[in-house]
Request: fold
Amino acid sequence: MSRVTALIPAAGAGRRMGKAVAKQFLPLGDRPLLAHTLLAFQRSSDVDEIIPILAEDEMEHCLRDVIEAFRITKVRTLVAGGKERQDSVFNGIQKLEKDAEVVLVHDGVRPFVTGGMIRECVEIARHGGCAAVGVPLKDTIKEVDGHGMVVTTLDRSRLWAIQTPQAFPAAVLRDAYGQAYRNRLSGTDDAMLVERTGTPVKVIMGSYENIKITTPEDMVLAEEILKGR
Reply:
């Protein structure tokens, strides 16, 4: 069976949250936000190892108040994040064990990932494919110019909002990141870097509850989602 590692980038400062505490450590229900995320991968029988990627000055706090406090035993190492999310994931890739065959990447501030999403992504990557979770867009999307004028209305039926987790054969992700850094390219998610190498990525159905918590309004919504679970 392929060895599966989950990289969890959680090094963001979360300035839009307007809090002194980094958003990944804000309380959501009875535990820090990041604990919800890590526990989802801890519970998954499809994941062998979890590597959180954190700001260097938050590692001790995370180890004590999240990993040890909630007995997240699949974490064997912590990795220092970089300047941008892409740099953080790249740092995590450098720490993969040689026998890692499948890599999941999941935002540390998406606490409502499900075991089903994880499993479906892993199964695709185990068979040599690449996968990203997403949901069809609900709103009409218009391209607008610099003066606020509509250029065109896009075909909503073909547009998806992409989430995480995203899963890849380890060799594919390593190669995509290597090419990106050699060519000085950046991407808004890991799948984008993989796509640039010509490798296809399959989008699978996620959930509208699989939100990325970025603003205070997101935390209000997250509390409501949590109450309903």
The two ends are 32 Å apart (CA to CA).
